Amino acid sequence: MKDPIIIVGAGLSGLRAASLLIAKGIPCRVLEARGRIGGRVLSEPAGNGPDAGMYDLGPTWFWPEHETYIKNLISELGIPVFEQHTEGALLFEQTESQPAERHVLPAGAVEKSMRIEGGVRTLIEAVAETLPEGTVELHSSVKAVQMSEEGTVELEVEQPVGEKKIRAAAVILALPPRIAAGKIEFSPPLPRDLSASLLEKPTWMGGHAKVVAVYDRPFWRKEGLSGQAMSWAGPLQEIHDASLPSGNGALFGFFGIPAETRRELGKDRTLQLVLNQLKRLFGPAAEKPIALLYKDWSAEPLTAVEEDAERMAAFPAYGPPVNAGIWEKKLLFAGTETSLEHGGHLEGALRSAERAVKEIR
């Protein structure tokens, strides 16, 4: 194969696709517009010291009982994991003025999930380490993909040193489908059915934001609480224990208020509302964390488009895009939104990578 396979996107699916291609002896390059690998995997430290733990502001856990791809890969790479803490009572908040209700769930009601030591970034780095040096090129934004009448594929790539063109045997788009359809120019244009299929796939987490409050210890456990909470009052709709196996305690939450409201409030006001809610639910100790980490994915232009800010009425119908037409075998798709199973999860990202690599001819 004269030209390499070009993979656009260095998230989990893009890196895994590259790793599988390299293992088959197929040359490839990974182009990433960001200055980091990982995509929607984002693990950040709570402070600058050597003991600062890493906390996930993107995907956080996996379910080993039925997510076998990620379970097997983590085992293969020798990555340590630990079980997500769920022991204790769950809090349910209906309004700000009413005390939260405590509910002790029956044994087995919460499916066992696992977290990765060092955050999901550990998995990203481990997969990246399977690639030859120089495989991944950061700050490389693909602006256009062109195919000649003879079937030669060429990408226009913008880098800090200027624009350049890269030839490809085929291209794997391992990025959110709406980003691929809206921010890359294709020549000849994508078939109408294919373009519509891409635009109809909402970006997972594209309208969401996540916050992690870090404390010196998981004080809520002494009160018999699991750290889990559900709220109709908000601003967080769903809260979980994000503590590490040893050391600091932490709570993380998903917002119930929409992206537009968060933008109107601004970051400072939004986070103050979060602290007010944590104090209502878990007491005065929750009001003053030692660190407060925040990521609004709806404001991330390499993740979400404006349409992703709209609330999802139901779980999206994910799966491979349809009817590639003249682009068949030249343009392939990976990414969690293109997986028929476990779409939106890390498992879906891995499955999509394997499917895309199998489609390479």
TrEMBL record:
Pfam families in the record: Amino_oxidase
A molecular function GO annotation: oxidoreductase activity
Alphabetical list of Gene3D superfamilies matching this protein: FAD/NAD(P)-binding domain
Residue ranges occupied by any Amine oxidase domain in the UniProt entry: 12-108, 111-360
Similarity comment text for this entry: Belongs to the flavin monoamine oxidase family.
Protein name listed in UniProt: Monoamine oxidase
